[in-house]
Design brief:
By secondary structure, the chain is mainly alpha-helical. It is built from 3 helices and no strands. Helix 1 runs antiparallel to helix 2. The N and C termini lie far apart (about 40 Å).
Length: about 100
C-alpha cells in the first residue's frame, strides 16, 4: 500500500485501507444477489453503509483529519480551493429526470 501525504498519517491510512478492503470484499459478492429489485438494492445499500460507518467510520475520520491538517500545513488548501472555484463539481442529473 502507498504512503499517505504526510508520514504521520500513514499508520491511519494503512488501518483505513485494511478496514475498507475487508468491508468492500463483503459488500461486492452479496451486492450481486441483492440486485433483484430497486427496493432490495436500496435496503442492502443502507445496511452496508451503516456497517461501514460502524466498522471503519472512526478510522476514516481520524485519517481524513490528519490529511486535512497535512494539506493545510503544506499550503495546499489554497490551491485546492482555487481549483474548486475554477472547476466546481456539479451534481449528475437524477435518474428521475432521464426517464
Amino acid at each position: 500500500m502507498a504512503h499517505s501525504l504526510a508520514p504521520e498519517c500513514t499508520p491511519l491510512k494503512l488501518q483505513y485501507d485494511s478496514c475498507f478492503n475487508t468491508w468492500f470484499e463483503g459488500y461486492l459478492e452479496p451486492a450481486v444477489a441483492a440486485a433483484s429489485s430497486p427496493a432490495q438494492r436500496e435496503a442492502y445499500s443502507q445496511r452496508k453503509a451503516a456497517e461501514f460507518n460502524e466498522k471503519c467510520g472512526k478510522i476514516w475520520e481520524s485519517y481524513r483529519t490528519c490529511v486535512e491538517k497535512a494539506v493545510k500545513g503544506k499550503g495546499l488548501d489554497t490551491l485546492l480551493q482555487q481549483a474548486r472555484d475554477e472547476n466546481p463539481l456539479t451534481e449528475p442529473p437524477s435518474s428521475e429526470s432521464s426517464s
